[in-house]
Amino acid sequence: MDTKKKTFHCKTTTEQELTGKKILQNCRNQLYLDFPYLDGAFASLEYKADSSIDTIGTDGELIYFNPVFLMKKYLEDPAAVRRGYLHMLLHCLYLHIFMESDRDSGEWDRECDCFVEQLIDKAVGEGKISLKKRKSDDTQVNTNTFDDHIFWQRTAGQASGGRRTKEKWEHILAYTSQNKTGMQSRAGTQTNDQQEELDEIYRSKYDYRKFLKQFCRLREEVELDTESFDYIFYSFGMEHYGNIPLIEPLEYKEVNRLEELVIAIDTSGSCSGETVQRFLGETYGILSEKENFFSRMKVYIVQCDCFIQKVDVIHSEEEWKEYIRNVKIQGRGGTDFRPVFELIRQEKERKELKNLRALIYFTDGDGIYPGQKPDYETAFVFLKRTDKMKLVPPWAKCLITGTGQTAEQMSV
């Protein structure tokens, strides 16, 4: 091992650069065997030696590497370099390198590193990739990652160049999602008839409409009850006014109403704006049926990918209709479900949520789930039956929406 290290130090600058590029190409080829659907992402990064940095990093166009560091690290632990390569690729794929202007860079770096490391750990745990799993403690993230994020700031400072790079990775993200779905579909062994039959079974078992209706809470609300009246006044009129009944409707009745609801929308690259509109439209159709809305209700609509992107609070049927007409999807990064649960916890502490009935999370299911069961009903809603439904925690409901639509119409 010592001899190899000395050999590296004796190489010329050109030889070191060529060796570094070969190392990265080898890592890419090995990762491609585990993740063939990432072919577009792998092909989008070139390599460039840069001795001004201590480790490696990327700006979404190039992977910059310190040749001496890379050769030394690869000799010590090839798997760590492969993991580092995948780590950087996921940063690009989930648009982390395009930091939001109002975010603290240190906090952003830590959150993004934690997110991609958990994704990699998940792949390792499922046997999708042959890498060592890091320690689960988040404090270990910094010791397991070594990419330099300085290039993210440079990308953010480039107006037209940064915009083009971001658009490129947005297209790659969409392509990757379709590519992965297509490969999974081709790998299936069931006939179309069998698949359609299973879809029907799942739709019947995991009926979103049925689930949502059960959370309409019985509550007394003051309103005219035109179907019943006070019989005392009725009899009085018949007796004293020549068979003229006095009808006075009761001024209240018990009705099924939804008090508070949180609807979270997974705005990762796999969910289109049209798909989200259809989901909200179906939800509105269920809730707007006779006597299912309070005159003043409270529904949170939260857009979230790996971070909370937008929160809207709906108080009336009119506001809901307006939201659906003008909804704009924000995010398009990776998926982490936990920020929504944290948002709910904070809102309950602030007494903004007092009678929360349920959290409904519309998603494709590919993300990081919370480890603890909350004190309210939770349902993850899918467009159609998928293997990702197996990832949903046992304490949460798993539902299918889109009844009456074909699989092609409902495709994410």
UniProtKB/TrEMBL annotation:
Residue ranges of every copy of the VWA-like domain listed in the record: 261-399
Domain of life: Bacteria
InterPro entries: Put_metallopeptidase_dom, VWA-like_dom, vWFA_dom_sf
Pfam families, per the entry: DUF2201 (PF09967), DUF2201_N (PF13203)
Domain spans labelled Putative metallopeptidase: 25-195
Protein name: Uncharacterized protein conserved in bacteria
Organism of this sequence: Blautia obeum
